[in-house]
Specification:
mainly alpha
Length: 332
């Protein structure tokens, strides 16, 4: 796998270099134009970023090692399955984060505090609006999904999905704050918080694995993540962006979390009534739940721009569907 992965990774850099040359021909590879005065600036920024990335790897990649070293090796499988399932909403939400850091950097350079504050509020609300319904669907449908995916014996570990998804929520909810702090070059304290959280995660997992088993390892991830991100990163981001608790609750958490209540009720009732035993049935139930959340979010929390985007998307889908139906009729 390594022999294949390394050359493939290197080869994929070639189109990247070509694209850079095409879009920014003034940029040249080489030593010409390099300045030692910039070395300290680049190192100062990237060293803190390196600590954040290393701490994230320590926090997410050591649980299975702790389990394999402390419990029967077969225990790694159900935990790994639960972790992969709990990471699904995070992987989908991650795509939204790529644009925030450069935008925050531009606004910070322009000293546009009002738009930085608006960016923080809007991006955090949208992140939760994407993550929460996906996470809720994963939690409620975890047992039937795992049963269909890998078999009924692993369905009993759905409680791990609940704990690990809760931990993922605490981290993902502060992704916009982290990206904005990174763009403002205010991420050194974020690196310290992330590193402390990772070390505590490892130590707590080692302490809890024997008395509580797999649940102890999962709690070893949840507890430090909650303390680090909700009790440390969140207040720091609020202070930097001059956001009050009242504004935070009114413009972020109430609009994003309130529509989750009817969605949870609908998902639970449909799961208990239908007892889904296939991916199609699970997807259908999940689709109904997402629709309920989307309607609730549009009524409670979506801003004017979000409503316009949703309306345009829906109209585009309707036009596309009509076009396909007309083509199908004409072919027949």
């Amino acid at each position: 796998m390594v022999a294949v992965n390394v050359p493939v990774t290197l080869v994929t850099q070639l189109p990247a270099v070509w694209l850079i040359k095409r879009t920014a021909p003034e940029l040249h590879f080489g030593w010409r134009g390099a300045s030692r005065r910039l070395l300290k600036t680049v190192t100062s920024f990237s060293s803190a970023l390196f600590v954040i990335n290393a701490a994230s790897q320590l926090q997410t990649k050591t649980d299975e090692i702790v389990i394999g070293a402390s419990l029967p090796i077969a225990s790694v499988t159900p935990y790994s399955i639960a972790r992969r399932l709990s990471e699904l909403p995070q992987l989908l939400t991650e795509q939204f984060m790529k644009v925030l850091m450069p935008l925050a950097s531009q606004l910070h350079a322009e000293n546009d505090r009002a738009r930085l504050r608006a960016l923080y509020l809007t991006s955090t609300r949208l992140t939760l609006a994407v993550f929460v319904p996906l996470a809720l669907g994963v939690i409620i449908m975890a047992r039937p999904f795992i049963t269909v995916w890998v078999g009924a014996p692993y369905g009993q570990y759905d409680y791990l999905v609940l704990i690990l998804t809760a931990a993922s929520f605490t981290v993902t909810s502060q992704w916009p704050a982290g990206a904005i702090l990174l763009g403002m070059n205010r991420h050194r304290i974020l690196a310290l918080i992330t590193l402390c959280s990772a070390v505590i995660n490892l130590g707590l997992s080692l302490a809890l694995v024997h008395p509580f088993g797999l649940a102890g390892v999962a709690l070893g991830t949840l507890v430090p993540s909650t303390i680090a991100y909700l009790c440390c990163v969140l207040p720091y981001a609020m202070r930097v962006n001059q956001v009050t608790l009242r504004t935070l609750l009114a413009e972020i958490y109430r609009p994003a979390l309130l529509p989750a209540l009817p969605m949870a009720a609908v998902l639970y009732l449909l799961r208990e009534i239908i007892h889904p035993d296939s991916f199609v049935a699970i997807a259908a139930i999940g689709g109904v739940g997402l629709l309920v959340y989307g309607i609730g979010y549009a009524m409670v929390g979506a801003g004017q721009a979000e409503r316009a985007l949703g309306r345009d998307t829906m109209l585009a889908v309707i036009r596309f569907t009509r076009t396909q139906l007309r083509r199908a009729r004409s072919d027949t």
